[in-house]
Amino acid sequence: MNQTDDNHPAIASLSDMVKLRHGASKLTGFPKIQARQMLAGGHKSRFRGRGMDFDQVRLYQPGDDVRSIDWRVTARTQIPHTKIFSEERERPILVISDLRSSMFFGSQRLKSVVACEISAALAWAGLAANDRAGGLIFGAQQQTDVKARRSHHAVLQFIHGLKEFSGALLKPQPDRYSLAELLEESRRFIMPGSTVFIVSDFHDVNASCERHLFELARHANLNFCHVFDDIETELPPPSLYAVTDGQQQTMLDTSSRKVRQRFVDAFVEREQLLRKLSEQLSAGLLPFNTSDNVMSVLARAYGKRRSSSRGPSQKVVSQKAVSQKAAPQNGAR
Predict the structure, then answer these.
(1) Number of domains in the chain
(2) pLDDT reported for residue 62
(3) What is the mean pLDDT of residues 2-27?
(4) If you ran DSSP here, which 8-state letter would residue 116 be given?
């Protein structure tokens, strides 16, 4: 990769991903979930014990640590009372970025570029929340991982990987991994108590993925970031359109009513399956249109007014809401 790659529309911009750290630091509602491992960190748990933050006072019970006795309340009531504290736990942020060949598509911006921006913003947000941040990147033929660390170097290493893998899509290759295999590989990397974001178009999500997702949800707080393009929700008006993979070009005929309906049905089916899985797994589900501003979507989910403790709202934009008529154009990427 050279410096001119930073201006290539098909390659995620390194400078743009670095700039996302400023917006990510404003995501003050980034999910504060119940931690599941006994480590020190910056997030409150529902467990109670000795920790940094005072929670409540209750009557002394046999076995309570005498160091926790609230002597002021005890003196005032003449009945022993104990202070209870909210323990703080660590919650690593791990981003699974799908940069396989299906992501090299878009009528306005490529899904792969949008996915890189989402992944970078989430990693920066984790670091801003004083968490360890890292992730996995899956390309058509290879994968890489960045161990979660509370370090700018870890996020920058992750971002460089995103740029490299997005650039590799310029040379089309068959996919080595299915989504199910991608999830199976990820299970070996995920630490218990992590918050996991899966950034993908989920084009091949199916029943074989469910087992791996349920296993991930047992040990982590799971979130889906669904990246899609307008053309995936509804083909453009009947006509001939030039489409390209960056090397070869062909014509797409959108005049067939059956083809158009089959196209819409495939997207609706995928969306419904994602919604079902998010409900079953208590997972967050955030839709990202390639025309969206990434930080605007994240701000709506994790902005200052956000009060949920699990993650992004599970309210999913309906097919009718996300499906917009694509204007005729000379070509669709």
Answers:
(1) 2
(2) 76
(3) 86
(4) H
